[in-house]
Amino acid sequence: MERLEEFQNVIGYRFKNQDLLFEALSHSSFANESKHRYRSNERLEFLGDSVLSIVVSDHIFENCKDIPEGELTKTRATLVCEKALHQFGEQINLGKYIMLGKGEELAGGRERPSIIADAFEAVIAAIYLDGGMEPAKRHILRFLPNDIQGAAAAAYDDYKTILQEIIQKNPEEHVEYKLVGESGPDHNKMFTVRVMLNSNVIGEGTAHSKKSAEQIAAHEALKLMGWTKR
Predict the structure, then answer these.
(1) Annotated catalytic, 49?
(2) Which end of the chain, N or C, is more open, meaning fewer C-beta atoms within 10 Å of its C-beta?
(3) Which of 23, 45, 49, 118 is catalytic?
(4) Model confidence, pTM
(5) Which of 104, 121, 214, 220 is catalytic?
(6) pLDDT band at 156, cuts 50/70/90?
């Protein structure tokens, strides 16, 4: 209870239903190991993802009036991806308050980006269910950067990361980069890389380094998927 009390002071929201906050901070490993029938935060994470998307979409729609729809989609993606949510969670030291099973604790789960990002979404849902959309919106907006477009542009410099974050929303999908060609002398080699979604080619890039070729291939894949027009 002390942990819940402290966390409420950190986020500046007081829960009427403390059970919602307890559930939001309960990782599946904790729920599975507990003798009590606690629920994990997985269902709240599902709801929080939707609340987050609505709030962020509304905010960038109102504050980024000079950019087209395709760019709005890209901007939203940078603000709701796992990397961004992990960073938001770190701002409030969220990992400290998550309840983990012993095995996950020993494995470093308290610092695991996916666990922190999922808990961040679960907390959003808990606030929404406890107090409605307005306090949930206030909680979310405190984390969004003032220069949204600048932050989005910086995030999208790493196309491989963004592609991976999009694909991993579907656990059955798998992304792989394959070197399919080399040409030129040793001092000026060119590398061609294809990015595969399962067994399908979704992008190809050629550059003087394998890493750059992978970034170009990922960029082509994102364009194919409609996530970027650059």
Answers:
(1) yes
(2) N
(3) 49
(4) 0.69
(5) 121
(6) low
